[in-house]
Design a protein that fits this description.
about 475 residues; two-stranded antiparallel ribbon; mainly alpha; 2 strands; Growth Hormone, Chain: A; 16 helices; 3 domains
Length: about 475
């Protein structure tokens, strides 16, 4: 049965904040779930008798399915009601979590992870779309700042919580902890979530969904495995070729269809294109901290996994705290100067990671990383909001799907590129400092991306607070 639309956000009696809390709770458990498993992998490997290559698929499959689901959320948002889609996505996520919590073997655990990823892939872009539809343009920065607080806070506590749980309880306790939160969120959402998205009933184009899955899935798999397997390995080359060819076919098909699954015409808006590129550049630069620094600390400087997690914690917490602040500043002043100052901070602090050595201290890494994350917080949500603000309401679902997809691709590309640079520039005959040399070179590459972002940020010009235009 098709549900009637509830009153729009401008009508009296529409309380936005309870709806936002429900959405943020859903996003929180989705992201927390993504970060919980990394620390627990050794325990899962031991319990289920898996080697590292097989166990890593528990992480890889989540990213792959997530990346496949995100591009088709614009179609799903047009096809189903807000309530129906959110409750279904959270329901699928809950079923996947329940399966993981009782999984007796690797196969069942993989099925649970696939269902979790399918639900999470819908939740993130759907949440952003709803926020943009229920908040007026002058309040969107604040709303996105709250969203940013959650997506920063969840990864900050994930590894520490996971480390504590697997030390004191079986690894399945990770899923016991988040399952009740999901169920409570579903129950509350059932009673308070309104239908705010517009049902346009787009036609289902099976070929487009297949091409999207193979295109984005192939590229994400290729880039995510290139860092470990090497760019010349057969699986990387084949998956990249399949991904590139099918993605080109997918884009060409979307431009021809009257009702595309994903609307690439959003890139006709120069500011949306610019801010999407800026978001990708910052994401690539940011990846250096979350991937390269733990490898440096554990494999070269002799720190434990817990210590490397604690080193990243102040930066993640600072980024989380600053997101609501930068959201309010965006609503007041716009994105331009936030982006310029933020990218200047990111650039300087990235180059401060290019002179590391065997004597580099925990405090130095922690403080520089924290300041770096402050810069990231000044850029990420403001530029995303500025870009999406340029789109009409009917294009916002396509804009949020495109934004999230491009960020996924940037994350995979950034990780593969920086890990490859680090590996290829090690000097093993020079001891620890020779190994750290590879890390320094990888941060030079990350710094170049940050400089590109800084230059691009000068092309944003605020026409009025909360809006942006091209210079």
């Amino acid at each position: 049965m098709v549900e009637r639309h509830s009153p729009g956000p401008e009508e009296p009696g529409f309380n936005k904040w309870p709806i936002m809390i429900v959405l943020i709770s859903g996003a929180f458990v989705a992201i927390l779930n993504q970060t919980l498993l990394a620390t627990a992998l050794p325990h899962i490997m031991s319990d289920l008798n898996l080697d590292a290559n097989v166990a890593q698929w528990l992480q890889s499959i989540f990213m792959l399915v997530n990346g496949i689901m995100i591009p088709i959320t614009a179609f799903l948002i047009g096809r189903f009601t807000t309530r129906g889609l959110f409750l279904t996505a959270m329901g699928v996520f809950a079923v996947g979590t329940a399966i993981c919590s009782v999984a007796p073997n690797f196969t069942i655990l993989m099925i649970g992870r696939i269902l979790q990823a399918a639900g999470a892939g819908i939740i993130m872009p759907l949440m952003q779309t709803i926020l943009f539809l229920i908040f007026p343009i002058e309040k969107r920065g604040t709303a996105m700042g709250m969203f940013g607080l959650v997506i920063s806070f969840a990864p900050a506590i994930g590894p520490t919580l996971s480390g504590y749980l697997v030390e004191h309880f079986p690894w399945r306790s990770l899923f016991y902890v988040i399952l009740p939160i999901i169920i409570i969120d579903i129950v509350i959402a059932y009673f308070i979530l309104r239908n705010v998205t517009k049902q346009t009933f787009p036609k289902l184009d099976i070929l487009s969904i297949i091409l999207s899955s193979l295109g984005f899935g192939g590229l994400l798999y290729g880039f995510s495995t290139a860092g470990g397997s090497g760019w010349a390995s057969g699986q990387v080359i084949i998956s990249m070729i399949i991904g590139a060819v099918t993605l080109a076919w997918f884009i060409f098909r979307q431009l021809k269809l009257e009702e595309p699954i994903l609307e690439f015409k959003v890139f006709k808006n120069k500011i949306f294109t610019l801010t999407t590129i800026l978001g990708m550049v910052v994401f690539i630069a940011m990846i250096g901290a979350s991937v390269i620094l733990p490898l440096l600390m554990q494999n070269m400087l002799g720190f434990s996994a817990l210590e490397s997690g604690l080193m990243l914690l102040p930066g993640a917490l600072l980024m989380g705290i600053m997101n609501p602040v930068t959201g309010r500043l965006f609503d007041k002043f716009g994105a331009r100067w936030l982006a310029i100052i933020g990218l200047a901070i990111v650039t300087v602090t990235t180059f401060m990671f290019t002179n590391l050595s065997a004597e580099t201290t925990f405090m130095y890494l922690s403080v520089v990383n924290a300041v770096r994350m402050l810069g990231v917080a000044m850029v990420m949500m403001p530029v995303t909001t500025a870009g999406l603000n340029q789109l009409s309401n009917d294009l916002i679902p396509h804009g949020t799907a495109m934004n999230n997809t491009m960020r996924q691709v940037a994350g995979a590309v950034g990780t593969a590129l920086l890990v490859t640079v680090m590996t290829n520039n090690k000097l093993p005959d020079q001891g620890i400092d020779g190994l750290v040399h590879g890390v320094n070179v990888s941060f030079i590459v990350a710094g170049i991306f940050a400089i590109i972002g800084l230059v691009l940020s000068f092309f944003i010009k605020n026409s009025r607070p909360g809006m942006a235009d091209i210079k």
